Amino acid sequence: MGKISDPEMELLAANWKAHLHPFPSLSKLVPGEIEDEELEEISDFHANLVEWDGYNAGLVSRVMKGQSLKLSGFSLNPEPSLGAKIDQLLSRYPKHSALFLAYKKEYNEMLEMVELASKINERR
Questions:
Q1: How much is the mean pLDDT over the chain?
Q2: Which H or E element spans position 83?
Q3: Roughly how many angstroms between the first and final C-alpha of the chain, as a whole number?
Q4: DSSP state of 95
Q5: How many C-beta atoms lie closer than 10 Å to residue 37's C-beta?
Q6: How many C-beta atoms surround the C-beta of residue 70 within 10 A?
C-alpha cells in the first residue's frame, strides 16, 4: 500500500470544492424555446450526465475519506462517450452552445477528479 502524497489529496479536495455548485440548468442556459426533437435528446443527455456525475461524486467522496474502492465492488467511471456526445450535440445544435459548453465544463471537472481519485485509490 503506497503512501498518498498530500498534494494529490489537496488537489482532489480543491477540485471537489470547486465542483460543488448547482448543475447547469436547461432553462437558464438555453435562449428561447427548445424544439420538441431537440428537447428529448437534450433532456436524455442531461439526465445521463447528472447520473454519471452523481455516481462518480459519491465514489470520489469515499476516496477523499480514505476508503478504498477495491473491495466495495464499485469503480470510478470516466465514460468517454459522454464527452464525445457533448461534442456531437454542440455541432448539431450550435444555438444551444452555452448549454453544451457548460456541460463540457462539468464533464471535464468530474473527469479530472475521476482520474485523480483512481490514481489515489490504486495506491491504497
A1: 87
A2: helix 80-92
A3: 5
A4: G
A5: 8
A6: 11
Predicted TM-score of the model (pTM): 0.84
- The cell 465514460 sits on which residue? 79
Contacts by 9-14, CB closer than 8 A, 24 or more apart? 9/64, 9/120, 11/116, 12/60, 12/63, 12/64, 12/113, 12/116, 12/117, 12/120, 13/64
Closest to 121 in 3D by CA, of 55, 72, 53: 72
Contact 62, 117 (CB under 8 A): no
Chain centroid offset of residue 112 CA? 8
Over the stretch 11-60, which tens digit does the pLDDT of each residue have?
998 998 888 777 777 767 676 677 777 888 988 999 999 999 999 999 99
Query: Residue 5 pLDDT > 70, yes or no?
Result: no
Q: At what angle do helices 36-64 and 6-19 cross, to 10 degrees?
A: 150
Q: At what angle do helices 80-92 and 36-64 cross, to 10 degrees?
A: 150
pLDDT at 3: 52
